[in-house]
User: Fold this.
Amino acid sequence: MVVKINVSLPEEVLERIDLAARESRATRSAFLVQAAERYLAEQEEERRQRRRREAAERILKLADELGPWDGTAEVLKWRDRH
Assistant:
């Protein structure tokens, strides 16, 4: 489904959009759709990266709180119990 909207833009911005659309051989609408999709994808990637950084910070904080941990020894203990 395609929805039509009205948007107010400064004239200079519209001129730049039209020029870029012509250069990419796209309609104004197609150019704006592509630009919006690219922007939204970039924003989503930034959110993913922020969540990864936050998770890494929580892991480091937990590691500091728990102290040294030998993962191999823990796996061997688990294996011996099961």
Notes: The CA atoms of residues 45 and 73 lie 37 Å apart.
